């Protein structure tokens, strides 16, 4: 089992924002954390990454490859992030450094975790840009984030997250800020990369139609608690909780249709 979360709680200012959340992500597993805004899904991911905001405290257990990582020193967690665990956040404009070329940013984790020279990291950055289907990779790595479109910036963020070939990718609403056409391309890219690399995935979203395109199992959250969990297909066809039924109604109104139906 790659990732095991048990009875995770997160408190902020005396309020319990995540309350007893548990789930597993096996090697190669693709799990979604889904719920409305304020359900605790992003805080759960931040707790796994050791990136909770100031004033937040976490308890319970988070085990990575059998090793307890909740409460590890920042230096040890930093070695995991970008190397064994990659992360893609919702808005690449804020995740990318505006005064560094995207090639330098893709290559940074390679220099840190793999000890590559600047020249070797640049060559790898070109390869990674090509891997995420950025146009003219040798040129685009010389660009700055503001010179790229939103979809291209998100592809750069994915390239950064996957450059060191992590075993787990955490993607926190990575397509929310994109239009539907670009969103579809990013989802297809993520699904292909995860499948081809055999990596595990934790995908965070409020949209069950989106989740159905990239994950096979899901944990549904409301007010920090798990209200339902199971195969995505089962949640779509026979939702048991009111929260999931609401998510299914939204999915039916947008992109999702049951397999084999038009």
From TrEMBL:
One of its GO terms (cellular component) is plasma membrane. GO terms for molecular function: ATP binding; ATP hydrolysis activity. Keywords: ATP-binding, Cell membrane, Membrane, Nucleotide-binding, Transport. It is found in: Cell membrane. It is a peripheral membrane protein. Residues 3-248 form the ABC transporter domain. Its main location: membrane. This is ABC transporter ATP-binding protein. Belongs to the ABC transporter superfamily. SUPFAM superfamilies: P-loop containing nucleoside triphosphate hydrolases (SSF52540). It comes from the Bacteria. InterPro entries: AAA+_ATPase, ABC_Ni/Peptide_Import, ABC_transporter-like_ATP-bd, ABC_transporter-like_CS, P-loop_NTPase.
